[in-house]
Amino acid sequence: MEELLRILSDLHPDVDFETQENLIDDMILDSFDIVTLISEISESFDVTISAEHIIPENFNSAKAMYELIQKLEDEE
Hints:
Layout: H1 2-11, H2 31-45, H3 56-59, H4 62-75
Helix pairs in contact: 1-2
């Protein structure tokens, strides 16, 4: 989780990603951010995020993103 929080903080240093749970709904993250996150997460965690996983629910909070990463790690 620390690595994910670092990635998110590098993207938006002004956001408290540990408490924010509406990153997409509140338009904190935009489509460019998501593309950047997918690339960074794929590289850092050695997982592949396919199109079926690119839904708002998986990117609305750091917790949701981390749960997606764990799920993808278990699948590989």
